[in-house]
From TrEMBL:
Source superkingdom: Eukaryota
DNA damage keyword on record: no
Pfam families named in the record: Snapin_Pallidin (PF14712)
Family: Belongs to the BLOC1S6 family.
Organism: Dimorphilus gyrociliatus
Region of interest called Disordered, as start-end residue ranges on this chain: 94-114
Subcellular location: Cytoplasm
Main localisation: cytoplasm
Listed GO CC annotations: BLOC-1 complex; transport vesicle
Feature: compositional bias, Basic residues: 99-108
Descriptive protein name: Biogenesis of lysosome-related organelles complex 1 subunit 6
């Protein structure tokens, strides 16, 4: 084997090593460079897609929030209308109550007046009856 080394020589080994290294690099560096470029492109595309998805997610969140606000606004409007109707009903009931109280006072006054008139009539009749009852004449002595 030592003879083989001498036959081949150091220059030949270096040259062969150089050629093998060069061929190896040509064979594998180019695909690895292409793979690195492809991976870089993939990573960039992935970042773009992630940003796009995050933007869409934030739009969706805003949309959901907007829908919740709209639903709350609809509830507020519904209860405001309900409150207005209740206030109107309360005013109507209050007015009816006031009218009934007024009517009640009026009827009570009429009954009291009728009772007074009946009492006066009864007193007049009593006086008339007393006047009509024969009174004994005073006796003269």
């Amino acid at each position: 084997m030592a003879e083989a080394k001498e036959v081949i020589g150091d220059d030949s080994i270096n040259e062969t090593t150089e050629k093998l290294s060069s061929a190896f690099l040509k064979e594998y560096v180019t695909p690895f460079s292409n793979a690195e470029l492809t991976l870089t492109n993939l990573l960039r595309s992935q970042r773009i897609i992630i940003e796009s998805v995050e933007q869409e997610r934030s739009k969706l969140d805003e949309s959901k929030a907007s829908l919740r606000v709209q639903a709350l606004a609809n509830k507020v409007e519904f209860y405001q209308k309900k409150l207005s109707r209740l206030k109107m009903d309360m005013r109507n009931l209050q007015q009816k109550s006031a009218n009934l109280k007024k009517r009640s006072r009026k009827l009570q006054n009429l009954k009291e007046q009728e009772a007074l008139e009946k009492e006066e009539e009864r007193l007049k009749e009593e006086l008339l009856e007393k006047e009509l009852i024969a009174k004994p004449l005073p006796t003269s002595k």
